[in-house]
Every structure is written in C-alpha cells, then in structure tokens.
Amino acid sequence: MFTRRSIMTTGLAGLAAGRVFGASSAPGAGVTDTEFVLGMSAAFSGPSRGLGIELYRGATAYFEHVNGREGVGGRRVALKTYDDGYQPDPSVKNTMTLMLEDEVFLLFGYVGTPTVTRVLPMLKKFQDRGMYLFFPFTGAQPQRQPPYGDFAFNLRASYAQETAGLVDNFVRVGRRRIAVFYQADAYGRSGWAGVRAALGRHGERIAGEASYRRGTQFTASMRPQVEILKAAEPDAVVCIGAYAACAGFARDAVDLGLRVPIANLSFVGSENLLKLLAEGRDDPRAYTDRLVNSQVVPSYEDTSIPAVREYREFMERYDPEPPADLVQEAYTPFPHSFVSLEGFLNAKLLVEVLSRLEEPPTRVDLERAVFSVKDFDLGIGERVSFGPERRQGLQQVYYTVVDEGRFVTLDDWQKRFAI
After folding, report:
1. Rounded distance, CA 264 to CA 407, Å?
2. What distance in Å separates the CA atoms of residue 268 and residue 244, rounded to the nearest whole number?
3. Within 256-296, where are the H helices?
C-alpha cells in the first residue's frame, strides 16, 4: 500500500486522463446492480495539487471501508477521477466527459471556486440529465444561491461564514484595520466580498488590498504585494488563496517587517502551507507564530470526537494512494490533514445519501434522498440537515494556530492576538 514517502510518476503515453477507483466505467445512468460510479475533477497537478490529492485520499479511505463491507445496498462505490490542475477550462472539459461519455451517476469532490463556477452553468444547461454536484471543496456563494444553487449540495460552511468569523474575532480583540491578500479570480473575489461585508457591519472598510495570479508558485516574490499592504498599516491581513502563494506572502511579510496576524481560509491547505514555511528554516516559528487559519472541520488531533477516531483508523488501515496516472509531480502526503478529513466526511455523508435511494436508484430520486437527511449524526458534534431551503449541511467554523510545528485549536483570541 501507499506509504509516507514522496511520490512521483512520469506518466505513460496513451494513458487515459481518468482513473476509476474500484470499477470500470458504468453504462447508462452511472448505476448498475453492482456499483455506483461517481465523477470527480480536481487538482492533481500544479501548485495546488495537494488539495485534490488530500481530498481524494480522505474520501477514498471511507469508500474503501464501505466497499469492503458489501458497498451501499450491495453496490460498490467507484470514483472516476480526472485532473484539472485547478484550472477552469480542463475542469469544464472533464465535466463534459464525465456527464456525456462516462455517464456517471453524480459529480463529487470538485476542488475550487474558479473551476466550480464554470461547471455550474453546464449543470443548468444539461439539467434534463438531472446531474448534481455533491460537496465541492469551496465555500463560495454561486453554488449556494440562484441561479445555480439547485444543482449543488454543500457540506462545508461558506467563505462568508469563515471571513465573518475571522473579522469579528479580530475586531473583538482591537484589530479593526484589516487588509486583504487575495487570488485574482472568483475564489479571491468571493472571500474579498465576505471580508468587506463583515467589516461593513462593524462600520469599517478594507484597510488595503493586494492580489496575485492563480497558479503562483511559492518561489515567486510577493514583495510588491507586501509593500502595498504594509503601507496601509493594517492590524491584520486576511488571505484568500491557495497554499503556495499564501505561504510565499507570509514568508515575505515576515522578511519585510509586516509583523501582524495573517489569517487564511480553510481552502488554503493548512499542512501544505505550514510545510512550505517551515522547511529548511532555522527558526520556523518566526514565520508561523502569527498565522491563524479558519477551518470547516474539527481538529484531526482531537480523538475525543468519534468521527476523528474513525477517520484516523481508516486512513491508517487503508493508506489510500492517489491516482498514479494523474500525479506527475513529487508530492509527500500527510498522514492526517484538514483537507483529507473533509474528504472523509464528504464520502461518509454521500454514502448515507446513496443508502436512502429507492430501488432502482435514479438521479431523479437524489434530491428527495438528500432532503430526507435530518439531524444526521456525522460524528463531529454538529448534526446535518438538508431541505429545499437548506442545501448546506454544516455551519460551524473552527480556528487554528501553529504550536510546536502543527495547527491546533485556538482557544483564546484575546490572549493570542489582542493589541
């Protein structure tokens, strides 16, 4: 099985872009007497590949467990997977293939706002196929509101909830001048809007803002962005981006003397961010002691939580491998991460939904099955409910800081960040 080593494959000429976990492509509506076939397009290459890989690994750990116990009503769960590199155009192409050629039962585990926002209009255009997107790894608004909200189901809290929580807590401890560093696309604008709205409720405006281009590597200089924000004299900076660029910004902020709390949203990929900031440094604390990251799942270190114990057990037991034909760059996976825990919970809830389908399972019955989920216990202390006006299962936001080289739950904002 897969070990904690760095992985790297070169790819083979003629290999298909997609990979099926557990089964071959299913005909018809993506369901047979023996399997459900789900479709996933995510980042398995590029500077954000850790997000797709970790999300996939967490979901796969749960699916492997279910498949080892006769599946869902006797059907195995198969995951048809494609790489989009966290870029919209490949995501659109992959989705067309999944819907029209692979004819999967549903879409699951997409990664990122710029990709999802381009896919949603396709689901509306082909709505006669009854295709739904389940539990994308993004907290943006388009899949939570008209005209596309009817085609998606969300588990995680929204970016609006994450940014509001960060702003409210910073303001509460006296940090009212908040600047924003954001990715110049739909994801970054969604988070930027959340910060602006939250500050507006406190009678404040964004103190300064700087952006970067999606796909920026950690090695890129963020000096111009840091200098722009430093000139604004902020009390804190909220970053809306992916781990490579956000780690580069945090590095250059420290080096250039911008010594204020730097917050990141859950999408950033906390473990990959921390790894980039800490590797090869004599004093990594200088680069990490002012970080505060919001999360949409509880800490995977808290083994008092039933689902966390289950997640840790399954990750160790199955040690899931990412798709070897999609991962073409070196990447060292984490034994545990917030992203893989989210993938695990996504898979657990999806299996519950599939188990509620009537026989024979059809896409037409999916919405009814989801709406029948009321006060479902995922095992994390917050029960999940869905309905026609409630297409997001979880609402809670958690906050974490770095202590002894790992992200831990933040218990006291006043003690940690008060001016």
Report:
1. 12
2. 9
3. 270-278, 285-288
User: What's the pLDDT tens digit per position in 358-405?
Assistant: 999 999 999 999 999 999 999 999 999 999 999 999 999 999 999 999
* Matching residue, tokens 């969300």: 154
**Residue that is written with structure tokens 């001048």 in the block:** 177
Pinpoint the alpha helices (H) of 258-378: 270-278, 285-288, 306-318, 338-355, 366-371
In this structure, the number of other CB atoms found within 10 A of the CB of residue 286 comes to 13
Rg (CA), the chain: 21
User: Strand pairing of 19-21 and 76-83?
Assistant: antiparallel
Amino acid identity of 324? Answer: A
**Dist CA 244 CA 29 (whole Å):** 38
Q: What is the pTM of this model?
A: 0.93
Q: Do 150 and 81 contact (CB within 8 A), yes or no?
A: no
Task: Determine the Cα angle at 365 with ends 360 and 371, to 5°.
Answer: 135
Tell me: the pLDDT tens digits for 127-154?
999 999 999 999 999 999 999 999 999 9
Q: Which residue from 48, 47, 29 is spatially nearest to 39, judged by alpha carbons?
A: 29
**In the structure encoding, which two tokens stand for residue 185, read together?**
């696309």
Structure letter (DSSP) for residue 101? I
Q: With CA atoms as reference, report the closest residue to 171 among 163, 181, 159.
A: 163
